[in-house]
Design goal:
Blueprint: E1 2-7, E2 15-19, E3 44-47, E4 55-56, E5 66-72, E6 75-80, E7 83-87, E8 99-101, E9 110-115, E10 122-127, E11 132-136, H1 137-140, E12 157-164, E13 174-176, E14 189-191, E15 194-195, E16 201-202, E17 207-211, H2 212-215, E18 221-225, E19 229-230, E20 235-246, E21 253-260, E22 269-274, E23 285-293, E24 297-305, E25 326-337
Antiparallel strand pairs: 1-2, 2-3, 3-4, 5-6, 6-7, 7-8, 9-10, 10-11, 12-25, 13-18, 14-17, 15-16, 17-25, 18-24, 19-24, 20-23, 20-25, 21-22, 21-24
């Protein structure tokens, strides 16, 4: 049975439904006396056509009844019989969202989840038998960091198919409007500063950026698109780039994606998403992302999405209140791995 429904305020035809069992509360499917052998699966479903068709987006939620679903921008908050869980910040558009439990909230049945009026930083949760709890996101969300395997050297380009240092011009890269816009289409800008040879900022250099008061704002969707890059043959490949990253950790993310250049309506494949700061900040960081190239011409994009509360402008309800710089990208290479 359906335990709750949440409608996406940005796309009213997108609806989420949480599912419990199909008999009495506390009696799980398959219990003694249950002779129904056609037991379905899934605890969270999404419809993008106002309920006509549904997709299972349970992801890695525990296999127990779900009792509540709430939208927090692009994030899904789900109550279950064993506690409350939150997806990543792009959970509502993911086919397989990944969830983590809300720390310090007891692992008991959740009866409802509501955001505090006027703030998306605090959720209020009602539980069965343990009272009312609050959860503050800004104090408990850790900034995502690039995955690091101490036994593996970082991915780097050996033989480059194409390199872009942006010193002589944009080199075919452009700022475009996303095909599925999720915010204000603020443009990436080409110009100074760029990345210096030692990782410091070169004020005479050139790069692409979404930064500063006009470039980094609330609820934005900014896409930097590469020209078609010929990867010649299928097999292991790497995209390598320099990035200066200073955003609201856990909320305002830049994602690196690719697809075949001829597949103009296909899905983009994500290689990595980052927010907060890299350890090298205020210097630039070199990031290498390995992938299996399908061969032929590919296009890459850097997509920067921000939430609705904090960005560059100081805001009294945000921790710190000093504003963040944004994202800058330079020295992009695509090629065979070293």
């Amino acid at each position: 049975y359906i335990t709750s429904i949440a409608v996406d305020p940005e796309r009213p035809r997108t609806v989420f439904a949480s599912l419990g069992g199909y008999t009495r509360r506390w009696l799980p499917a398959g219990a003694t006396g249950d002779v129904n052998y056609n037991i379905g699966e899934g605890h969270l479903y999404r419809s993008t056509d106002a309920g006509k068709h549904w997709t299972d987006v349970t992801g890695n939620l525990p296999d127990v009844p779900a009792t509540w679903v709430e939208l927090r921008g692009g994030q899904l908050l789900v109550g279950t019989d064993v506690g409350a869980f939150a997806s990543g910040m792009r959970g509502k558009t993911s086919d397989k969202p990944q969830f983590a439990p809300l720390e310090d909230v007891p692992a008991v049945p959740i009866t409802s989840i509501q955001l505090q009026p006027g703030s998306k930083k605090r959720a209020v949760l009602a539980t069965y038998g343990r009272g009312i709890w609050t959860y503050d996101f800004d104090s408990l969300v850790a900034p995502p960091q690039p995955p690091v395997d101490p036994d593996e050297p970082p991915a780097r380009v050996g033989v480059a198919y194409q390199s872009y240092n942006f010193e002589a011009g944009p080199q075919g890269w452009t700022s475009v409007v996303s095909e599925d816009p999720q915010g204000v289409p603020i443009q990436w800008t080409y110009g100074s500063p760029g990345m210096g040879a030692d990782g410091s900022t070169d004020n005479a250099g050139r790069a692409w950026s979404v930064a500063g008061e006009a470039g980094y704002v609330d609820k934005q969707d900014s896409v930097l698109l590469s020209p078609p890059i010929d990867t010649t043959q299928a097999g292991p490949a790497v995209i390598q780039f320099g990035m200066l990253l200073d955003t609201e950790a856990g909320f305002d993310e830049v994602t690196v994606q690719y697809r075949k250049a001829t597949d103009t309506t296909g899905d983009w494949k994500s290689l990595g998403s980052y927010s907060g700061q890299f350890p090298e900040y205020p210097k630039w960081s070199i990031v290498g992302l390995p992938f299996d190239s399908p061969g032929g011409e590919l296009q890459f994009r850097f997509r920067f999405l921000t939430d609705e509360i904090c960005s560059f402008q100081p805001n009294p309800i945000c921790a710190g209140g000093g504003g963040w710089e944004g994202v800058r990208v330079d020295n992009v290479k695509v090629g065979k791995p070293r």
